[in-house]
User: What shape does this take?
Amino acid sequence: MGDGDCSIGLVGLGTMGRNLVLNMADHGFAVAVYNRTGEKTREFMEQEVGGRKIHPGYTLAEFVGHLQGPRAIIILVSAGPPVDAVIDELLPFLSPGDLIIDGGNSFFRDTDRRGRTLAAKGLLYLGLGVSGGEAGARHGPSLMPGGPPAAYERVRAILEAAAAKVQGELCVAYLGGGAAGHFVKMVHNGIEYAVMELLAEAYDLLRRGLGLSPGEIAGIYEEWNRGELASYLVEIASPVLRRVDEKTGQPLIDLILDQARQKGTGKWTSQEAMDLQVPTPGIDTAVMMRDLSGYKAEREAAARVLQGPPPVFPGDRQAFIRQLGRSLYAAMVLAFAQGLALLQRASQVYDYRLDLATVARIWRGGCIIRAALLEDIRAAYQARPDLEHLLLDPRLGREVMARLPNLRAVTAAAAAAGIPAPGLMVSLAYYDALRSARLPANLIQAQRDYFGAHTYERTDIAGTFHTHWD
Ligand code: 6PG
Assistant: This one.
């Protein structure tokens, strides 16, 4: 059993790969597996496979031999050169019409390049964003495929079976051509960075500003998760904050070094947003704060000399917690709005033809940024697919507006207490800039013209002007 029987193959038995294989096999698909080191394959076969239809290949020839033609192979290895290496190794074993699917967090320009190179060889290529971590891969991830429609159709049944479902609806859909899938996944991660920064700031305000214990803060996140903030990232904050370190008996969160790492997807989102001239300040700020967190020694040195106000909030504590929850909702909507604005622009520039209601739909389950508010976001784009900006949706605009007094109060309190809350602050500034029919960019234009004769346009007369300022 096995030879030529498998409808899908998977290369790369890391955490995501192993779990995705088990997921597909549980849905009745025979899966061929291969890993660079055979030891890992052996271990997987012995410890996890059970009676499932999973067939190991200890050489690529053996692996490819398990697959029905035309073949479909998912690669789940680290983004970057390892993906090219696996493709190069596979090529001699493949025939025209075979399909390679990259399920990693690949940079979308790499996906474009690989798609073109493989198309020239008669092969199909699908860039597949996979979100949801280990549990998602095992029990239902959100899947973001992009590439030739025919490539998607070939594996549609498998992806639909493996994907998360929310109220009977699938968290997978064909998104668009080229690297559309990996672009959407990149922006998903950018939003993930922004939301995580906001949740970290809220924790800091509660911990330092109100002096609450991690356990008390966990209770607040639990409460928040029962309301409008309901989302995966808010949900997992509570068990994280409640975890007690076995070695010391202290809250583990207090012992974790305050330096956030990153693999680059958030930074790519910001870089791409700047290239496309789409403002995404919440995402940029989140990347900036992860970078700043890395300067631990400098921060410790500065903490000894640079003065600030006492980091405490006077006033009604319960009122502050309520205001903070409402601020988080507004800032979360704004983070999604920025990511979706980037997707909208990229869709025009790269001709992805994204349907943002579909993107919101497949993000409602399985993925890291799944949140109750995605239901409203989806409804907004369903009602108006060409909505210029998420905040122009009457309902979401109204909901955010109603919480702006809270966001103003919370950011003012953070500023007064000297507790950094740049994600919340920049959300407020973005909102205020967005609703400013007139911004001070006129002075920037005048100065550019003053020192560089860069010219300017006028509000009252058409044309381009230059003033001899001296
Ligand atoms: C997901 C996650 C996943 C991964 C991130 C972490 O959607 O399942 O986003 O892709 O955990 O890459 O990214 P950083 O290491 O950059 O924080």
